[in-house]
Amino acid sequence: MAKKRKVSHIPNRTHPDRPRPKSSSALAASSAKKQHPKRQKQQQQNKQPSQEKPTIPFKPHEHILLIGEGDLSFAASLVRHHKCTSVTATVLEKNREELEGKYPHVGENIDVFLAKEDEDGPSADKEGSDAEDEGKEDGWSDEDADSDEETKKPPARDNRIVYHIDATKPLPNSLLSQRGPFSTIIFNFPHVGGLSTDVNRQVRHNQSLLVSFFTSVLSSAPNPSKPFALVPGGSIIVTLFEAEPYTLWNVRDLARHAGLAVEKSFKFQAEAYPGYKHARTCGVIEGGGWKGEERRARSYVFRRKGELGSQGPAAGGKKRKKGRESDDEDDD
């Protein structure tokens, strides 16, 4: 007679009182919950596009000066998507040939920026070879904002490119007399380029660049004999990445010592400027490289000390707390 085999008890995996093993997806979700709340929140913010309404620090018909425009993609977006009509874009390169050598695609942006109308072709007569750019006085006026929006005719476009403008040197009188003064001056992502591999030296070089820029704008003080760059109450905007070594530049302190006060700062959102691509100082790099428009950045709005309103930061407003990301007014 065959001997019965002893069978050990095998637990019923479907028994209602016994927990089922977690799947791999459930385990991943469980581990995510155990992460530090701040890290988890940061990961979610990085994955999701920003839902915050972008700050646009200018109006379409303001008289705007762009410094160090690189491939002119920001300038082109101001014209095509924000309908700006009185923009002077300056570049460091001596002429268009040198500019195209660094940014081969720049021709498309030039065509958009200099187009007289959205439907028309490019306007070839608005591109100057240097600060001696010839042309008529701009016709920008505050009356544009006061007239009836339904009946007024949109201002004619008068956008210009001026070559060979060094932000570390005083703005040429020819540029200021023909195109200035400006209500808004914007310097996005200033950088001297790879002058040194030493971080401390690079920081000092870029701090020197910003100091020279602030000085060149403010040294053109209003007086009867000399044209000036910034209208009374006008703003200077500088945009920087929110990471080292850029945060080491201490742009607020540099501006304060130059005679400026921080009116406010806000997130720079590249998606607010369709077509904009961050252009590196050294030009296009083969193989692509990092995309600056995807990095966290912040814009700082400066005004001359004493020109902020009685309710502004200069009159005792609260300082922006360290690390706070929401739009806020900063003290000077």
Automatic annotation (TrEMBL):
GO terms for molecular function: rRNA (uridine-N3-)-methyltransferase activity. GO terms for biological process: rRNA base methylation. Residues 22-32, 42-54 have a biased composition (Low complexity). One of its GO terms (cellular component) is cytoplasm. Transmembrane segments: none annotated. InterPro entries: BMT5-like (IPR019446). Residues 65-112, 156-280 form the 25S rRNA (uridine-N(3))-methyltransferase BMT5-like domain. It holds the Pfam family BMT5-like. Residues 150-160 have a biased composition (Basic and acidic residues). Residues 130-149 have a biased composition (Acidic residues). Residues 1-56, 115-160, 302-332 are annotated as: Disordered. This is 25S rRNA (uridine-N(3))-methyltransferase BMT5-like domain-containing protein. The lineage of its organism: Eukaryota, Fungi, Dikarya, Ascomycota, Pezizomycotina.
